[in-house]
Amino acid sequence: MTPRGGALAVLALAAALAAGLLAGPADLAPGDVLATLTAPGDAPPLARAVVWDLRIPRILVAGLVGAALSGAGVVTQGFFRNPMAGPGVLGLSACGALAATAGIALGGDAAGPMATPALAALGVATGLIALLGFARPGSGPATLLLAGIALSALASALSTLVLALSTEQWDLARRVLAWLMGSFESRSYEHVLLGVLPVALGLVAAAGIRGDLDVLVLGHEPAASLGVHPRTTALVTVAAVALLVGAATAMAGVIGFVGLIVPHLVRLRVGPRHGPLLAHAVLWGAAAMVAVDTIARAATLVPLPPGVATSLAGAPLFLWMLRRSARGWVT
Amino acid sequence: MSGLVLSGVTVAVPGPDGPRALVEGLSLHVRRGTVTCVVGPNGAGKTTLLKVAAGLRPPAAGTVTVDDTPVAALPPRRRARRVGVLPQRLPLSDDMTVRAFVELGRHPHRSRWTGADPTGAAAVDRALTEAGITALAGARIFSVSGGEFQLARLAQLWATETPYWILDEPTTALDPAHALRIAGLLVRAARTGHGLLVAIHDLEIARRIADRVACIGGPDAPAFVEGPAGAVVAPAVLDRVYGVRTRLWPDAVGFELPGDEPPPTVTA
After folding, report:
1. Shortest Cα distance from A278 to chain B (angstroms)?
2. What is the DSSP code (8-state) at residue B261?
3. Mind telling me how many Å the CA of B118 is from chain A's nearest CA?
4. Which residues of chain B have a CB within 8 Å of the CB of A211?
5. For residue B50, what is the enclosing H or E element?
6. Do B92 and A275 lie within an 8 Å CB cutoff?
7. pTM of the full predicted structure?
8. Would you list the DSSP string of B74-106?
9. Which residues of A touch B76 (CB under 8 A)?
């Protein structure tokens, strides 16, 4: 990480976190927020509740989700050697959501707080393994993306089926729907604790194969000749992506495009080495997610679900990237 | 027996009636300081044979050892520090500087967690110098010419600091100047103690750089001819294997390899 580029990323994250703390529907002046932060004991109970129990856990969850999805995107784009291969495009978020919604509908979330992230991770891992079976590394970008589209459609259809079957129980249907839209509403420290460990483990696993991902730019067989172990790298990729996307999905439901756009834009600036790429993408991903969520709840007339907000911003960017990469796409 | 040694190696590919042997029972001994070329028609199995020699796929029969260790028994990173490979095609999926591209050759030496590689920078500098592309170090790899790209790939191989090199058609699709430059670099690599196994279509270059040549394929496959370059790259072998008529002109125009003495007189 270049010192200046790194400082910029840290600064962006700090600014996003500050904005997230200061903005919101509750009528709190910046001074009040600051006072509540420095001396929570002396603050009025309402301000304390808004800052400490609503905003802080919310921006922490948003930051973790953004970091996790961007980190996962760095891994999938590197492993599949494809700038379009984000976890959302590949249908992995949809698989995580399907496993989690099915778990919720069947009452699996009552098994314990880690049940939903574990199920989501399992869903992501299953989806990624299926994808590896259909679009083997080296089978070309079109095969991979088309397989991802099919996987995404299948998982979304099954999620809708779960939703349709659960409409009898209104409360259940509402919970499932909130999932599928992606939400940071009423996130607590419980959610933060839920996500911290899998996200940290996933990022450590990703960092462990950063050098292998660097070499995969040459192709899978040339990389093998340079000592990249094909099966180990695939397994660590599955584990890292499952932990990261599973945790993100468990914390906030389906959030599209972050895992595609942030790593892609960071790659344009930082270059193709996955060490710096991962570090920058994690910081920028967290910053972007917090910023999008802050704008979605403070600057719009209706509170936009963050999954909707990221898709509104992400889809046009995705099309721009597609146009850009169509010129220099080497398979 | 030190060296890269293929003993009784059979290479097979899947066919409609089960595995079909392309080469059967081939033995080669690539010593350090020598060049062994593999020639033969398209589809003869040169690329598959090279992958077997590199330990990237198992042989249908026989063994491959590197300095007495079976290549299949070596963990991937240790294997990659013994045997370097220049594959026929390199489907590069992202742009970077030529230097960063050459640095990828250091992967087997780099620590997984810290990324430390104390001798890496020096090795990359040396590789760029050997390939004669120090001036290109800052250029984008997607913007260099085909010949320069091949030189960069050779520099990447040099940066691996592996004693044995396996190269699949290193001169294909290059103009004569670049092809000869690559050929000269291969000779230089052998003189500096590398052992080279090279699949090549250019018989003139094969005859000039190789100590030994294995000619595979043709109507006699899976049989093959292996021997000193002068004995294998000869009409008696080539006519049969390629189904063409070969003539060697003793007074033909020959390009000089860079840094090499004038071409040896042809005796045929």
Report:
1. 14
2. P
3. 16
4. 107, 110, 112, 115
5. helix B46-53
6. no
7. 0.90
8. S-HHHHHHHEEEE-S-----S--BHHHHHHGGG
9. 224, 227-229
- Nearest-CA distance B90 → chain A (Å): 6
**What CATH number labels A3-324?**
1.10.3470.10
Nearest to B107 among A215, A219, A275 (CB): A215
Listed in sequence order, the residues at least 6 apart from B157 whose beta carbon sits closer than 8 Å to its beta carbon are B84, B85, B86, B105, B127, B165, B167
Decide if B61 contacts B49 (C-beta within 8 A).
no
pLDDT in tens, chain B (268 residues): 799 999 999 999 888 888 889 999 999 999 999 999 999 999 899 999 999 999 999 999 999 999 999 999 999 999 999 999 999 989 898 899 999 999 999 999 999 889 899 999 999 999 999 999 999 999 999 999 999 999 999 999 999 999 999 999 999 989 989 999 999 999 999 999 999 999 999 998 999 999 999 999 888 878 888 999 989 998 889 888 988 888 877 656 566 776 655 555 555 4
**ipTM confidence:** 0.89
Domain chopping of chain A, boundaries: 3-324
- What is the C-alpha separation between B36 and B34, in angstroms, rounded? 7
The alpha-helical segments, DSSP class H, found in chain A are 3-22, 30-38, 45-48, 56-79, 92-105, 115-134, 141-165, 170-181, 189-208, 210-215, 220-225, 230-252, 258-270, 274-298, 306-328
